């Protein structure tokens, strides 16, 4: 569980996160949504300490992150897994080498143990025969699955996914969504996903946070988001013609 209490963050006097308090729940897919400039990317970067917050606190299972020593922060970061928007794979390394990278950097496993772990993670994301391929030789969806395999290699307690479906077709997006949700539940991970994809929201949104102008504007789940009377959330959800038709059908 990740607890955020009264977090604020500014850049050059401009308030980006405004007194945000919320909880990301363990074993659930926690989705953060909002328009451009809403603060969701800055919030995620604060969570993983790429940005330092101006005020407030962030706790990981009761461990205070914001005022921890650098050594304590490093220990907490060992429990992080990251899936970056573009996958962020190393082009010069094979699929297996990409997944092995965090294990070689941050674990004390032997080479044979690392190989076993790489095999396990690639099997888990349904890529059992892709070890020797390079990123340039695989599809966008496969790259995302490799990124997920790398993110879970160290058995993280917390998984952060930044627009995991960016650039993917709808069918592949559903596969990635389902994979993230399965892994979250299977390993009881606290998963935080930044997304603007409403299909993801309705597929795997067990907890949804809507940010607007740096504030927490609404929270709920995939069942309640279509019924909310929050005007800003409705404008965001029903921005596309598809979801306008869904809304009309649900009220007919």
Pattern of helices and strands: EEEHEEHEHHHEHEHEEHH
Main sheet specs: 6 strands, mixed
**What is the level 1 CATH name?**
Alpha Beta
Mean pLDDT: 91
Number of helices: 9
CATH domain topology: Rossmann fold
Q: What is the alpha-carbon Rg in Å?
A: 19 Å
Please state how the strands of the largest beta sheet are arranged side by side.
Answer: 6-7-8-3-9-10
Low-confidence stretches: none
What number of domains? 1
Considering the chains and any ligands shown, give keywords for the structure.
252 residues; alpha/beta; Rossmann fold; 6-stranded mixed beta sheet; 4-stranded antiparallel beta sheet; globular
How would you sum up this structure, described in words?
By secondary structure, this protein is α/β, with parallel strands linked by helices. The chain has one domain: Rossmann fold (3-Layer(aba) Sandwich). It has nine helices and ten strands. It has helices at 40-47, 70-77, 95-106, 111-124, 140-151, 170-186, 198-204, 231-237, 241-250, and strands at 2-11, 14-24, 29-33, 55-60, 63-64, 80-83, 158-162, 190-194, 207-212, 215-220. A six-stranded mixed beta sheet has the order 6-7-8-3-9-10. Helix 3 (95-106) packs parallel to helix 5 (140-151) and helix 6 packs parallel to helix 7 (198-204). The radius of gyration is 19 Å and the shape is globular. The model has no long low-confidence stretch (mean pLDDT 91).
Brief digest:
This protein has 252 residues and is an alpha/beta fold.
Task: List the SSEs and their pairings.
Blueprint: E1 2-11, E2 14-24, E3 29-33, H1 40-47, E4 55-60, E5 63-64, H2 70-77, E6 80-83, H3 95-106, H4 111-124, H5 140-151, E7 158-162, H6 170-186, E8 190-194, H7 198-204, E9 207-212, E10 215-220, H8 231-237, H9 241-250
Parallel strand pairs: 3-8, 3-9, 6-7, 7-8
Antiparallel strand pairs: 1-2, 1-4, 4-5, 9-10
Helix pairs in contact: 3-4, 3-5, 4-5, 5-6, 6-7
């Amino acid at each position: 569980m990740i607890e955020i209490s009264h977090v604020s963050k500014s850049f050059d006097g401009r308030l980006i996160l405004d007194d945000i308090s919320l909880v990301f729940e363990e074993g659930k897919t926690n989705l953060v949504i909002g328009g451009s400039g809403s603060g969701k990317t800055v919030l995620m970067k604060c969570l993983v300490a790429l940005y330092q917050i101006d005020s407030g606190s962030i706790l990981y299972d009761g461990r205070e992150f914001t005022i921890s020593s650098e050594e304590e922060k490093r220990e907490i970061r060992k429990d992080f897994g990251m899936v970056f928007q573009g996958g962020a794979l190393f082009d010069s390394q094979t699929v297996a080498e990409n997944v092995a990278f965090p294990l070689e950097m941050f674990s004390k496993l032997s080479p044979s143990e690392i190989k076993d772990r790489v095999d396990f993670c690639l099997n888990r994301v349904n890529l059992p025969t892709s070890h020797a391929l390079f990123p340039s030789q695989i599809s966008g969806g496969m790259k995302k699955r490799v990124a997920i395999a790398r993110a879970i290699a160290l058995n993280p307690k917390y998984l952060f996914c930044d627009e995991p479906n960016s650039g993917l077709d709808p069918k592949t997006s559903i596969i990635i969504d389902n994979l993230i949700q399965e892994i979250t539940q299977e390993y009881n991970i606290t998963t935080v996903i930044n997304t603007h994809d409403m299909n993801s929201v309705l597929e795997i949104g067990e907890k949804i946070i809507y940010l607007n102008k740096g504030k927490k504007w609404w929270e709920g789940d995939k069942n309640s988001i279509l019924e909310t009377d929050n005007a800003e959330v409705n404008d965001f959800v029903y921005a596309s013609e598809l979801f306008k038709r869904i809304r009309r059908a649900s009220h007919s």
